Structure formats: C-alpha cells, structure tokens
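Now for a typical sample entry:
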Amino acid sequence: MQIPQTTIGSPVHAIGLGVHTAVNARLTLRPAAADTGIRFVRTDVDMQPVRVSPAAISDTFLASTIGNTQGSIQTIEHLLAALWGTGIDNALVEIHGPEVPILDGSSAPFVELIRSAGYRAQRKSRRFIRIDRPVRVEDGEAYAELKPHDGFRSSYTYVVDHPVINRFPTKLELDFGEADFERDVSMARTFGLLDDLPKAQAIGKCMASSEANAVGIDDDGIINAEGLRCDDEFVKHKLLDAMGDLYQLGYQVVGEFVGYMSGHTLNNRLVRALLDDPTAWSFETRQDVPLPGRAAFLS
C-alpha cells in the first residue's frame, strides 16, 4: 500500500517566548505543495526558506538551530517531532523572530496546532528512508544508532548522577506498532537542574526558562507544583528530542533508533553519517507497517 504525502489543511498561528533568547516570536504553519518537505523561514529578516536537512543544521548546543547566511532559527526540535508524529510531510514554517516559541516545553501544543489546521492528502506518494544496515556514532560512553527494523522502534537510556532524576525511569522502549506519538511522547516537557540555570544564562542560554515551560529540579525534588506528567517524563523528553532531530532527514524512518545519553549534537552526527553512507539506507514508497504519523490525515 502506498501512503500519500500530507500537508496541513490551512494556516495556523501561535505566539510565545523563545526559551533561549527570551524574545517573543510569532509562528505560522502554512500548507506546502507535495515534495516541498519542511521548510523554515524567518519573516523578520530577509531570509530565503531553508529546507530541513542534516546539513542545514548550523548549531546543536542545547537546541537544534537551522539557518543559512541570511539568518537562523533556534530550537526547532519540538516542532519537528510534532510534524513527524502527526504525519506532515510538507509545510512552510514561518517564524517572526529568532526562535521557535517554547510554549509549554513539550510537543503537545504543536500537535494541537496541527490538528486544528486539519490534514490534506496530496497526490504524490510518501517516501520513507529504510535503514538497510546499522549506522552508529559515539562520543565517549554516549552513542546513537539506527538499525534495520520493519516499522519504527525506538529506545533511549538517560544516565545522570542526580538524586532526584535517579528516582525515575532512565530507560524507555517504544514500538510504534503499538505506541502513539501524541498519546505516549508528545506531552513530555524539557527539564533542567536549578543549579545549572545561572551557568546557562551566563552564556545567553535558557534566558526564559521557567516552570511554565520546563520541569525544574533541585536537590530535594521537582519544583513544579503539578509535578511530573508521567514517571518517565525525563527519558520521554529525551526521546522526543531525538525524534525531532531524526526528522532533519525530511522523511520518516523505517528502522530502529537507539540512543544512550545522546543529545542534539550526536543525533545530528548520526543522520549525517547515515546519509553519507548510501549502502546504509534506501528510499521506498510502499509501506504497510505502523509508523508515527503513517496516515494521520485519516484520523
């Protein structure tokens, strides 16, 4: 069975702070023609749209940034994860400002925004990237890997020596034959240690971090009054980030992702390494196995 490409049904908008820049930005998602892919453009500067690809990622420190010589847009990973998880192949992302709004720190508001726009099936078949042989990148103990699998399966292990984080699950395995991105992953928020915040802000990062857009952790526990949304929210958010980084490929993956303490830099190295090895992957259009967003326009 061939799956048609999809775009959103109508333009939708959101306004919010960038978590790193603390600058208010306006986000507009617009429908795009088949084979356009996901393209980002800043509307507050003279910038041509940039199609998402691993090579278009200009910075990976604490967030994934896309750009060209005319401008850049920070923190695209939560939105990319939502676009993958809801099955959007083609869209124009307009940002009036330097950073995608953080909203609540998860992908859930972006999923809701996409759902409100509706889905439009297009007259070209969706192309998938099938992993034909394993590709792995490492940085010390950390690694990220893509392996063959008939569907999309993922696992992530988050290891950190902290008395609060260690109370909660550090490993997550999801097979999207049963799991659902919106239900099982999208709500997981970004998080951070209160002790690390002054250091981050001293170098111009996390300038707008707050309990409204992140889970704060001190030596005694979770500082957010509502606590965690689920016991494995920390490791789920790390997987959410990885799914957004994998969508830098511009196509859904048929395969298995394994991450061990990987972050944006290692995830970007992984997708670059995959594309650099033409024997490790292939395109296909026929796909009968469950994937995130496989046919979201029908739901």
Confidence is low (pLDDT under 50) at residues 295-299.
